[in-house]
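Researcher: Please predict.
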Amino acid sequence: MTVAVETGLWQLDPAASAVALQHRTMWGLVTVKGAFAAVSGRGEVRPDGSAVGTLTLDVASLDTGNAKRDKHLRSADFFDADHHPEITFAVRGAELRDGDAVHVIGQLTVRGISRPLSLTARLAGADADALTLEAEFTVDREKFGMGWNQLGMIRGLTTVTTALRFIRAAA
């Protein structure tokens, strides 16, 4: 069954959306988890059913539950929030395929470094006034200039999990 998504402009509902990350550290013994409290975005569903849009994360809003670690993550060793306060994902194209699967192609920019990113999201719900997209994907932080790795403690990929609710934008 294919779900129809209404054409037009959509605005992210930050109160009903979440972007979280997790990364195994301490040689794989500990999983650090965090979430971005400040998320914004908008999109447009075109008449042909494809979509484009932008998602923006406020780097300073990352909360891992440890203030000292959060401060380090905002430093030049990692996100360099003073010089690059936002992470953006520019969606160049999104298409609903195979029921609720959404193929997304875009460009992720972290620390001023942009890389292509393709992923499959899931349309978790849609009606005339709201739609929810969920996705889980991995990112190699070293490709974005975040190679800090004291004593080789941090290895592997960072897993990003999103639940994004969009509401119809005022015309």
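Model: The chain has one helix and eleven strands.
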